[in-house]
User: Which sequence fits this backbone?
């Protein structure tokens, strides 16, 4: 069985990356080939190395906002790893349309809201401010439009009395760790039928 090769991009602690990597065993159709970060100090790089996954980083700061130059550098470890699929997992750099088009139809992202609601940042605070009774997370294909591509999975959680953005974020993150591996397993098998949890 030839496994699909998966590269995972992280900016922070990498708990979603860990959930993905730990799920890619046994009869899973994919295996991790690289964990890449824009921050040399990202905790996710350490956790990936502990799991024997090759790691690399391209620090975005020296590029002083020149996204094209940063992305040209980012492409080097990616092309060397030859991924079939890229998973953005808490990767906080906004990618240009040019970069996204090179991975069209094979780059996924997890976003902590029930898209199309609350694209962008501070999703938990915005759901609380709006008085929503439910919230959640979404895995979608990445397109040029931020947080906008075809939805491949969603998980719903209740919003409870006394919730703060942090409490709600923790409840959503638990579901992210179930949803993303479930979507990746299906996507790597060529199935784009959305996974719906909760
Ligand atoms: C997650 O909530 C994810 O939805 C968001 O950033 C957070 C990253 O968490 N994009 P981690 O680095 O995977 O722990």
Assistant:
């Amino acid at each position: 069985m030839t496994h699909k090769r998966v590269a995972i991009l992280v900016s922070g602690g990498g708990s979603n990356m860990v959930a993905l990597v730990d799920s890619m065993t046994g009869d899973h159709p994919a295996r991790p080939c690289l964990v890449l970060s824009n921050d040399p100090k990202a905790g996710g790089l350490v956790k990936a190395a502990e799991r024997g996954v090759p790691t690399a980083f391209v620090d975005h700061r020296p590029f002083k906002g020149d996204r094209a130059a940063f992305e040209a550098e980012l492409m080097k470890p990616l092309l060397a790893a030859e991924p079939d699929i890229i998973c953005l997992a808490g990767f906080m750099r906004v990618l240009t349309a040019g970069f996204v088009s090179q991975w069209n139809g094979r780059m996924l992202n997890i976003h902590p809201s029930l898209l199309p609601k609350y694209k962008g940042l501070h999703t938990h605070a915005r759901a609380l401010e709006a008085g929503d009774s439910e919230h959640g997370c979404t895995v979608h294909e990445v397109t040029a439009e931020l947080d906008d591509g075809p939805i491949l999975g969603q998980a719903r959680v209740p919003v409870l009395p006394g919730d703060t953005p942090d409490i709600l974020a923790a409840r959503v993150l638990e579901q992210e760790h179930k949803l993303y591996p479930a979507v990746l397993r299906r996507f790597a098998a060529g199935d784009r039928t959305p996974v719906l949890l909760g």
Summary: Strands lie at 4-10, 30-37, 55-57, 85-88, 107-111, 134-141, 151-158, 195-197.
